[in-house]
Write a structure and sequence with these properties.
3 strands, alpha+beta, rod-shaped, 3-stranded antiparallel beta sheet, single chain
Length: 163
């Protein structure tokens, strides 16, 4: 089944390809469901405030925890935790954390996890959009191929009927 020159014919290349319009439709629907699932995930994360937590983490970047001695009026030393952050104006701002930084660490760890989720969701959204576009392109090309095959079959049928 080869043409002169040893090249395979187009119909031989397409022997294993089954182009069922119903399956093409289900392929398009699968891509749409993925896009919809991403939107649902995005709304759920917004409702939980995950995007706000991620922005908190961005605000904490560059801040350091510092255990500082503070003296009262009687010159008695007390030790407290402070968060030292450099602002846009390059001035260091101190935020009181208390006797233990545990509450701050819990917020920071949660905000870091939220930030990682936001980055992962953004990557996922990009991949799903790219996949949906590729699936739509594939179904368009397969539809064109189906139409071209039908035209070719009709042409051969009419050629056989005229002879």
């Amino acid at each position: 089944m080869e043409e002169a020159g040893g090249k395979p014919r187009v119909r031989d290349l397409l022997k294993g390809v089954s182009i069922d319009p119903g399956k093409l439709k289900s392929l398009e629907e699968a891509g749409s469901r993925l896009t919809e699932a991403c939107k649902i995930l995005d709304h759920a994360l917004r409702d939980l405030g995950v995007y706000g937590l991620a922005s908190v983490y961005e605000g904490l970047r560059g801040c350091t925890e510092e255990y500082t001695v503070v003296y009262n009026r009687a010159k008695k030393p007390y030790y407290y935790w402070y968060l030292k952050c450099t602002g846009r104006d390059k001035r260091v701002k101190s935020i009181y954390l208390g006797k233990s930084p545990e509450g701050y660490n819990a917020v920071k760890d949660t905000a870091r996890a939220a930030s990682e989720v936001v980055v992962a969701v953004e990557k996922l959204r990009g991949v799903v959009e790219e996949l949906d576009k590729a699936l739509r392109d594939l179904t368009d090309k397969l539809t064109q191929l189906t139409m071209a095959s039908a035209v070719e079959a009709a042409r051969k049928s009419s050629a056989l009927n005229t002879t």
